[in-house]
Every structure is written in structure tokens, then in C-alpha cells.
Amino acid sequence: METQPELAHHExxxxxxxxxxxxxxxxxxxxxxxxxxxxxxxGNALRFFRNPIRFMADLxxxxxxxxxxxxxxxxxxxxxPSSDRGRTFFGFGAEHNRQILTEVDDFQTRxxxxxxxxxxxxxxxxxxxxxxxxxTQQRLLLMPAFTREHLNSYHNDIIEITEKMLQQWRPGxxxxxxxxxNRLTLEISSKTLFGLEPTADSWxxxxxxxxxxxxxxxxxxxxxxxxxxxxxxxxxxNLEDTAKSLQAEIERKRALGIIGDDFLxxxxxxRDEDSGRLTDDELVSxxxxxxxxxxxTTSCALTWTLFLLAMHxxxxxxxxxxxxxxLGGQPPTYQQTYTLPVLDRVIKESLRVLSPGVIFPRxxxxxxxxxxxxxxxxxxxxxxxxxxxxxxxxxxxxNRFQPERWLSLKPSPYExxxxxxxxxxxxxxxxxxxxxxVIIAMIVQRYRLRMIAGTKINPHVNVVLSPKxxxxxxxxxxxxxxxxxxxxxxxxxxxxxxxxxxTTP
Length: 505
Known about the structure:
Elements: H1 41-50, H2 52-63, E1 66-68, E2 88-91, H3 94-102, E3 107-108, H4 118-124, H5 132-142, H6 148-168, E4 174-176, H7 177-194, H8 200-216, H9 231-255, H10 263-269, H11 280-311, H12 313-326, H13 341-353, E5 360-364, E6 368-370, E7 373-375, E8 380-383, H14 385-389, H15 429-446, E9 447-451, E10 459-462, E11 464-467, E12 472-477, H16 493-496
Parallel strand pairs: 2-8
Antiparallel strand pairs: 1-2, 3-5, 4-12, 5-8, 6-7, 9-12, 10-11
């Protein structure tokens, strides 16, 4: 199978002589690759942003469980600069995940780089960027919208919106599943988070949010050129439009008497005994991050699950056997989303093999350490659920899609963390999981999706992992011809998933 040699013109990290850390010392400098000629640290940064998965895998192989972006100092890649001592560190493995996620005073979140505008200040001050008591207080106010009891109220909306999509599909259609899942989760998020039916305005809002995130978490955020046509100008305008749109929706709900059981209605009515209600600025910022997380992350997870099922006929056959036996062509009830073991294993394994979460940065608030390595204050420290999920020390044959491994596998919270772990675990994990299970169950019972030979599948990583150029598939009635769903595909996907091991039932 053909693969696409991205970054082949650069010297691979693994060809650079590795530095052996002094394991006996609690304060040694972390190893790092040299800066690139001419480009310096920026060359390493561009290699990282171009393909974080390749960069981190090569970095770990060459330098071990803790490494830096480059030898010497570098400005932080994601956060506003705050120190001339900072470096970018990578911590790999469960123990470093545990340290980063539990030592929350030393490793905090921060606002990403962005324009100095009121809209950026408002939208970036959300639960993902808050720390300490403020984070705890906001989390307590948001939690009731995601209790198991309240998730039940979203269940029928998920089924109704998914059914509408499936009725529009026709045998023989060629559709980009990333686009289809984006549209589907946009409608679900609009309804469950805001109580809205999809409109041209909501499509435009989602598009602006996606463009904003693409720029914020890319090298473009480091080029603050505010001229017409530049990414930075587009970012600034989109930030302002998004903040105004969310504020308008809050005012509309108030005018209607705050009716509904959607997330925003609950947040407008929410009250904490000590701190009172959420302010309008807090409502806007929390709605923004919940909309992005609920929409983009779930759509990517759905897309990758459909790909993995198409490429693994035996797993799809076992899943459909279970669905036929227990559902008989119907969507799963809310209770059944918790009682279908094969479906549960498929979703867990998909979230492991192609985890939407690839890179999460933290900010070192003081001189501290990561494992045996010193971390100066002002540094950023990156951990990666994706890289953890592909660690052979944790998972046997980690690049294989094997749902059956979950029959006996019981990883710790820091070995398996598709929704994060600890005090900052994703509030929407339950809602996202229910969406994945309901939607996959409904699609697999109705249709067989076939891959198209020659499709190039390369990663696009910007907070979440998606196929760079979409995922075209052909729709067939569910005829159980699973062996015909596979196709020879190309691209970097072959370094991410061992597709040669997929078997035919």
C-alpha cells in the first residue's frame, strides 16, 4: 500500500544521537533535538505543527519519556509568552500524564495566543482555561447539565436528528463522512446545547468557530498581522461575530422566559449558593467551548469509527450480530446504550486507536520537574492521549484495532484518557459517548459503508484529530458483504493503524 512521505525532506529525529538522561538525579535537563539550520527553533516548531503525531513518536523514540522541542530556549507555542526561561516539554506515558493532570497548581491551563480584543478575552475565559477555585466553581455550575439523568433528555433528539440524516442517504451515494458527521453533530449540538433547530446562522457560527480554532492552535497565531485577508484578521472578526451571536441567543432565551432543557437554558437558570448565577460573559464563554467540544470532537470520533469498521470486517460482523439480536433494526434505548458490550468495546477501541485528543498543553507556574527532569517556570508541558494510547508498554500491538482486547483490559485513568482525567476530565464525556453509541448503532443497522480505493488519509491535528481531506465512502444497503467494504488506502494512516491485520469474517 502506498504511503505519503510527509516531512521526508527533513532529517528524521530518530537519526539524531539520543541523549541518555541521568535517571538517578531528580534535576537534570531534558534531552532535545538540535535546532534546524537557518530556521532555528522555528524549524522544529513547524515540523511539530505539520504533523504532531509523527513528531512526537520520533521524539519519544529518540529521546525517551521526557523531551523538549529543541535544544536551548524557545517561546511557548500555544500560550501568551510570559517568561524568557521557558521551553516546550513533552511528557509521554501514564506516569507523566498522572503528574501533569494531578499537580494542578504546578501545571495549569492558560489562554492560548490571540488578539488583544474584548471578544478574545471573553471567549477564551472558559472552563478549559480556568484554574483553582474559579474552575471548581464554574464546573459545579455546569455539571447538572451532564448528569446521567439529564442525558436521558437528549436521547430522543439524537435519534430524531440521526434518522433524518439516514433518510437522506441513498444506496450508491458517495459521501464525505467527515462532512456528514460534522453536519449531524452540529444539529445535535444546536438542539441539545442551545435548543435550536439548524439554520443558516448556526451553520455559519459553526464554520466561524472551526476557523477560529484552526488559527488559534497553529503557527498562524504567532503572526499577528491584522490586515484584510490575513488569517489574523479573519480570527479577530470571527471572534467578535461569535461572541455577539452567543450573547444574542442568551438575550433571546431570556425574552422567551428561559424555556427548555437544553444546556444554555439550564446555565441561564443555574445558581450556586456561594457565588450566585453565571454572568453573561461566563455564559458566552462556557457556551462557546461546550459547542466546539460537543460538535467537533464527536464528529471526528464518529468519522474514525466508521473508517475502522469499514476496514475491519470481522469486528463489524460481530457488532451487527449484537445489534440484530438486541435492537432488531431499532435505535438503542437510553438504557441499552449502557448494556450492549460489543458496541461498547468498539467505541472504546476506536477512541483508543484514533483518539481525537492528540495534544494538550499545560503551563508551568513555578520551577518544577517532570519525572527526573527540571522544568523552568514559564515553560509549556504537552501531554498526548493519542501517544499514550499507542504506547507498546501499555497496549499489546497498539496500532491494531482489536475491540476484543477490552474483554480483559482495565487500564488506569492515566493510561486511557480519550476524555482526559482527573479534576479536568471532560464534562461532556457522557453525552459524547451516548452520541457515538446511538449514531453508530443506527448507521450500521441500516447501511454498509465502503471505502474507496486509493483514498489518501493523512492526519489534520488542530486540538482534535481529523482526516485532512475528509473521508469519502460509498453507501450500500446493509447486506453483510463486509469484506467488500475494505479498500487499499494510502497516506500516513498506515503509520497510525495496522491495516494489514484486518481480517475477513
